[in-house]
Structure formats: structure tokens, C-alpha cells
Amino acid sequence: xxxxxxxxxxxxxxxxxxxxxxxxxxxxxxxxxxxxxxxxxxxxxxxxxxxxxxxxxxxxxxxxxxxxxxxxxxxxxxxxxxxxxxxxxxxxxxxxxxxxxxxxxxxxxxxx
Amino acid sequence: xxxxxxxxxxxxxxxxxxxxxxxxxxxxxxxxxxxxxxxxxxxxxxxxxxxxxxxxxxxxxxxxxxxxxxxxxxxxxxxxxxxxxxxxxxxxxxxxxxxxxxxxxxxxxxxxxxx
Lengths: 112, 115
Known about the structure:
The complex is a heterodimer of chains A (112) and B (115). With 112 residues, chain A is mainly beta. Chain A has no helices and eleven strands. In chain A, the strands form two sheets. In chain A, strands 2, 4, 5, 9, 10 and 11 form a six-stranded mixed beta sheet that branches. Chain A has a five-stranded antiparallel beta sheet with strand order 1-3-8-7-6, with no helix packed on it. In chain A, strand 9 and strand 10 (101-102) form a beta hairpin. The N and C termini of chain A lie far apart (40 Å). With 115 residues, chain B is mainly β. Helix content of chain B is 0%, strand content 49%. Chain B contains no helices and eleven strands. Chain B has strands at 5-7, 10-13, 19-24, 31-37, 44-50, 53-57, 65-68, 75-79, 88-95, 105-106, 110-114. In chain B, strands 2, 4, 5, 6, 9, 10 and 11 form a seven-stranded mixed beta sheet that branches. In chain B, strands 1-3-8-7 form a four-stranded antiparallel beta sheet, with no helix packed on it. In chain B, a hairpin with a 6-residue loop joins strand 7 (65-68) and strand 8 (75-79).
């Protein structure tokens, strides 16, 4: 099975850097994705790591270490609009449906 | 930019009633999904649909649930006899063929309230 754990809540100041961790227990997956969800909104894709290492997309970066069963999302130059929930997600290996299994989610609150 | 659409945005129903949630996935996508999110919790997979049939369903997707793609554009989720615990946000999602990433495109969701 798949289990992805995230801190439930993180608070940071506008302009700062914040890291949201995702630790997982899984029998195998293709890659680690990150989705952002504002209150009442739909999850929207942010970043994807197929391989170990860092992927950078503007202010957002994501990291994966399969040997440590660990990944994180790094948000730089935080803005008030970054206040949202962030979910890590995996697509299980040996799965032809391409479904996503989501983590428990982290609610990020950005303060002025 | 193409997007997934869902109707209605909010559905209120009485326990035991049937509801149909509607979705129009992105037109050239091949894989379609329904996910559920109970308030304050994580997004949970319900069912995937490919090549006009269910490719996988979760334990949540019991006999009360069914999906259809009746006309090549709409994708519906039917709950035959709703229960209080079916109250949740229901998201439709779609993805292209076998791309390099696992990106799925989510609709805005339907909030289902069962009274």
C-alpha cells in the first residue's frame, strides 16, 4: 500500500522560505508530485520529481530522495497568495490506471 | 487554456436520494477520474475510467456508485442512494495519454451535502 505523511500545518512570514516535507511508505511509485489547493478550490499541479534530486520551477522547488523515502516542496519569496494546502502525491507502480494517491496535506499560512 | 468543468458547483440532497454529478474533461484526454475530499481531509481516489470502462476502483466505490461517459464528452458519477457520509467535495480529473509526468487536471469540484 501507499502512505504519505505531511505536517498538518506550517506558518511562515511573507518573503521567507518554507519547506513542506513528505515522508512515505510505499511499495513503489513512478514519481512524486505536488499539488496546491486553495480553500474551496481544486488541486492544481505544481511540481514533479521522477528522479532523485531537485526540480526548480520559479519560486517553487521540489526534492526527492528515494533512498530516504522523503521529499519536500520548497517555496521561496513567500507571498500572501501562497496561503493554501499543499499535497504530495504518488502514482503507484504496477498500476495501469495512473491514479494518484495523495498525502495527508499541509496547510500553509503566510503572515504579513 | 482548456480546463475540466463540473456541474453543479453545489448539490444538496436528502439521504436516500440519487444524485448525478457531471464533468466535462479536457477534450483530447484519455484517462478520467473521480476523487473525493471530505472537509479538512486529504483527496481520495474513487475510480478511474479509460477506453469506455472502469480501469480501477477503490474500496469507497461500492455498488451505490457508478460512472458513465454517455456521449464522448460528459463524464458522470452517480450515487444511487446517498448517505450522510457521502457529504464531501467531489473532483473530476483527467489526463492525456502516457505522458512523462503524472499530472492530472482537476475540475473545480462539486460540493455534495447530504441531509
